[in-house]
Amino acid sequence: MSELDIRSNRKWPMPKQAVPGAPLLEVEDLSVRFAMRNGSVKAVDGVSFRLNDGEALGIAGESGCGKTTTALSLVRLLPANGRIRSGSVKLFGIDLVPKTEKQLARYRWREISMVFQGAMNALNPVQRVGDQIAEPIEVRLGASRAASQKRAAELLDLVGIPKQRAMAYPHQLSGGMRQRAMIAMALACDPAIVIGDEPTTALDVMVQAQILQLLEQLRRDLGLSLILITHDLSVIAETCDRVMVMYAGRVAEEGPARRVFTAPRHPYTRKLLLAFPNIHADRRTLDVIPGQPPDLRNPPPGCRFAPRCAEAMDVCREVVPPEVRFADGVRVACHLFPVSDAVAGEVPA
Amino acid sequence: MSARYLVRKLLGACLTILAIVILNFFLFRMMPGSPERVLMRSPVITAEAKAAARARWGLDKPLIPDQLVAYVESTFTGDLGYSFKFRGKPVTDVLLGRLWPTVILIGLAEFFAIIFGLLLGAYAGWRRGSKLDKAGNGFGLVLYSMPYFVIGMPLIIIFAAGLGWFPTSGASTAGATFESGLAQLLDFGRHLALPLITVTLGLIGGYSILMRSSIIETRAEDYITTARAKGLTDGRVMRHHAFPNALLPMVTLIAINLGYVVGGAITAEVVFNWPGIGTLTVDALSARDYPLLQGVFLLLSVCVVLANLVADLIYGFLDPRVHA
Amino acid sequence: MSAATTDPAGVNGPAGPAPVVIHRQRFRGLRESLGRFSTRTDGLVGLGILLVFAVLAIAPALFVGPLETVVTATGGVLEPPSMAHVFGTDEMGRDMLNLTVHGARISMIIGLLATVITVAVGALVGIVAGYSGGRLDNALMRVTDFFLVLPTFVLAIILAPILLDIIGPEAELFGIRATLLVIVLVIGLTSWATTARVIRSQVLSIKERMFVDRARVIGSGSGRIMRVHILPNVVNLIIAQAVLTFAFAVFVETTLAFIGLGDPFAPSWGQVLNAAQSAGAPGLGAWWYIVPPAACVVLVVLAFTLLGNALDDILNPKSGSRR
């Protein structure tokens, strides 16, 4: 489906403030801080990316790199001590950052919805599953109780859960079914973007595959755009068009998934890929990245990966590496790739 | 909730009550020379009652097992002995006569305290750190630190002695006659007002603090983030998602508390000379009326055990997660 | 690890293995705990209030002279506050300020002694039950749960005259008369159960961690293990519990005295309020008789509660804020 197709096939009209021709989602220079007892944590620092209609973007990185914080800050779901310090989040060209809580609420779930990790904790334990799915339809879209229950049943059907299970409580469903229920819930208001935060991490491999298959199928059938957050690169490789690798609150590398996985440029990306065992390769010991991610209360000046990077140069420890764009669509932030290289578009071996 | 759960809890309750009856038996007899010495010391008891008590207690038989068994048996058939202070009147009768004023006072107070305490705690905890929270929490903590009589005495000074809006003590105006049932009811109401406010305030303190904690914990749960992500208003998130979940642990706490309150409100009754179990207990204490004291102890212990049982059953019923 | 490295301060004798590694964390934790405590306004306020009352309790005569008795009363009957008597007088003409300040000493001492008993018994039961496990643990917990169910206030009311009869009304210990001794005993006997439960669950989690270093404690007797290894790691929690128990003890003592179990010759705040009630002070509007002791009780209980909550948050690893 092309961009134009998706937008004209939308179930609901575009938001009034939408800028015609603007990309679906454009995040520019986003910075998020957490105020802690002994300093502020710069969890996300100058992150930019774009999501187009019908695209699936994967955000990868180890725990604590800021990927979940980035996603939560798109709809301002941060905990009380978190704040967006700077940057813009433009949905259809509308900047969400300066909006008040009340104005922003209008976009939540109707344009951007989320599927959380660990559905057992993310679902209200004392409310029936069907009611939880029907709730946004009734409250946000103003449908009648009967109509929203009916729609909820349809959604359950769509994700492969028998309709009778709508009367069940979350603890009565298996892990896989709960995750499907969360997906059904996320689709309730026919959003433009669905963000999945580690949607398959808590599941076993077989169920994981089913869920990914479901997401892929829904994406095609409904013309959804997807942001998938996970530390599991294989998941991204399977489902995403583009991937963004984050480290310590910054973007290391971003581009078409195929390009990034077959020809990684950033040293961190390379190490990350090497850390995954390859069934076809010869036996060897797993490559481990020595050291720990930096303490984000006092991150190192310059490149945040420099302390652990085998190829770090002096400039890396002092100057923040600028982002460089290559012809094959990949962005890298690393001093190994100075701006001048970008023109050539060649990949070092 | 399975039948096995129910039976297990019922059995536990019965065993505990039995243990309390046995404890009651030994308490009295811990005193040197008891019960002969204590029984005979009291001058007000009639000869017939003395003989009946002697027979009941089986004082000419060995302590264990004969006396113990006799005691347990008679207790379970409703014979709690004879009061010294009330000249041999059966303890059961004395207790029943003073029961309803306490039940009315405590029952109404719990009703109001639960409603206001839970609401106050919920709103304070939801807006943690705000002025409402600091005020509400502070208010709750201060009330929690005040024994009932410390709340009651100033209320009497201000509203009864000072402003004269309410009488200073008792449950009815002494020696008054009333034209209608309504007038009598109003008189009772005027007497009930201050004790009721006192006990209610005392209870609100504890409930609001507990509910506040519960809602603060609930607020940190993931499904609250989901609810916010759905774009629901803050009020709706609190009312539909946080409050019901925060209420669950409170239900058992309230049920258990109900058991203790009956005994705890003794000082409130004393301050207002309210003719209930509380003042009865204090009078029995000063008269060293042991049978009556034991009767009160048994009554209140049974209340607590029953309250705990009800709490367990309610929780098993309310929480869909309990398979037991 | 040799004894030298784990026991640099030489706090343990030459006999037996030095305590397990957890011990060292305690000393590091102390500095950190003090730091965290300094940020808690509620705990600091509580501590401040308590220090004031502690000073008053230690030497009341320094501030207001000796305790006024019926014989040495200085004022008229039920006089409202005036320049001569800042808090007015009671129905015997005694100065209320005098009574209130001396009441601090008595209320606090009774509270302290009751707390000592409660925490000693509770900690002992908790540690033995938690460490022993199995049948002994089950048995002890049955007893503990039984005590938790009992309406302790009413039990206290019954026990008091019984105990008084047993020890005899003339008995005296360290200058404390029988009636007050009985109150101390009664509070201790009825309140230890909560402490026992809390300490036991902490001991259970320590037991888990100890298995890692099991090798070091093989050969030590149970009593020694409990004393030398477990106790130091539970001390923090015991302190927090003790403070909260103190609040409860003062609360209960005041209530028991109000009911008539106090000692008219050693008037605690509760006893003063009892006298006030008997004299009909509320009905007469004699607020000065009631407000000073009542306010003191509330302040002290509140202060202990604030302090205890702050300590519990900081020292109890099970408590939420520690995350």
Write up what this structure looks like.
The complex is a heterotrimer of chains A (349), B (324) and C (323). Chain A has helices spanning 3-8, 67-74, 101-105, 119-122, 129-139, 145-158, 175-186, 205-222, 233-239, 257-262, 267-274, 314-318, 339-344, and strands at 25-36, 39-51, 56-60, 82-91, 94-95, 112-115, 193-197, 225-230, 242-247, 250-256, 323-325, 331-333. Chain A has one domain (3-111, 191-341): P-loop containing nucleotide triphosphate hydrolases (Rossmann fold, 3-Layer(aba) Sandwich), CATH 3.40.50. Chain A has an eight-stranded mixed β-sheet, with helices on both faces. Helix content of chain A is 32%, strand content 22%. In chain A, helix 5 (129-139) packs across helix 6. Chain B is globular. Chain B is an all-alpha fold. The termini of chain B are close together. Helix content of chain B is 76%, strand content 0%. With 323 residues, chain C is an all-alpha fold. The relative contact order of chain C is 0.15. The longest helix of chain C has 40 residues, at 222-261. In chain C, strands 1-2 form a two-stranded antiparallel ribbon. Chain C contains 13 helices and two strands, in the order H-H-H-H-H-H-H-E-E-H-H-H-H-H-H. Chain C has helices at residues 3-6, 22-37, 41-58, 60-64, 96-132, 134-149, 152-167, 178-210, 214-217, 222-261, 269-278, 281-284, 287-315, and strands spanning 172-173, 176-177. Chain C has a single domain (49-315), classed as MetI-like fold. Classes of the chains: A alpha/beta (349), B mainly alpha (324), C mainly alpha (323). Chains in contact: A-B, B-C. The A-B interface holds A 75, 77, 105-110, 113-114, 116, 118, 121-127, 135-136, 139-140, 169, 171 and B 221-223, 225-233, 236, 240-241, 244-245, 248, 319-321.
